[in-house]
Structures are given as C-alpha cells and as structure tokens.
UniProtKB/TrEMBL annotation:
PANTHER family: CUTICULAR PROTEIN 76BD, ISOFORM C-RELATED (PTHR12236:SF95), STRUCTURAL CONTITUENT OF CUTICLE (PTHR12236). PROSITE patterns: CHIT_BIND_RR_1, CHIT_BIND_RR_2. This is Cuticle protein 19. It comes from the Eukaryota.
Length: 81
C-alpha cells in the first residue's frame, strides 16, 4: 500500500491567546509540513519540516515579529517591615 494523506487545521482563540496552525502531507515515504504559533511574547514561531527514509527528519525554525515585554513597575518606594 502507498500511504498518502494531507491535513490542516487552525486555532484562533482571542480569550486564551491560543493562535496556531498546521498543515502536513504524506506521499509514500515523504512527509512535508509546517506549523506556526504565536509565542507568549507576541513573536511568531514557524517550523517547516520534511521527513523521508534517506534524510530523516529535518526542520527549519523561523521566528518573526517583535517581542512585546510587559512594562516594568516604576515604583521606587520603601517597603513596610
């Protein structure tokens, strides 16, 4: 039998901040795919991958966008003891 499939999905939940997607396809012994997700700092991580019996699993990771860091507190008062 010659294995063959393809799928994709996406999630975009503004309440939890869960934003991601993936696709993958297989044709015989060759699998190709990609997934991406929004990291907690606001950047997007994308992983493109391939796998086959000659080269094994190979992935290329890319990060895009600018990190958003929470503002630091400007309180410089004295604590209570």
């Amino acid at each position: 039998a010659h294995p063959q499939y393809s799928f994709d999905y996406a999630v975009h939940d503004p309440h939890t901040g869960d934003v991601k997607n993936q696709w993958e396809s297989r044709d015989g012994d060759v699998v190709k795919g990609s997934y991406s997700l929004v990291e907690s700092d606001g950047t997007v991580r994308t992983v493109d991958y391939t796998a086959d019996k000659h080269n094994g699993f190979n992935a290329v990771v890319k990060k895009s966008g600018h990190a958003i860091h929470p503002e630091q507190s400007s309180y410089h008062g004295h604590g209570l003891y």
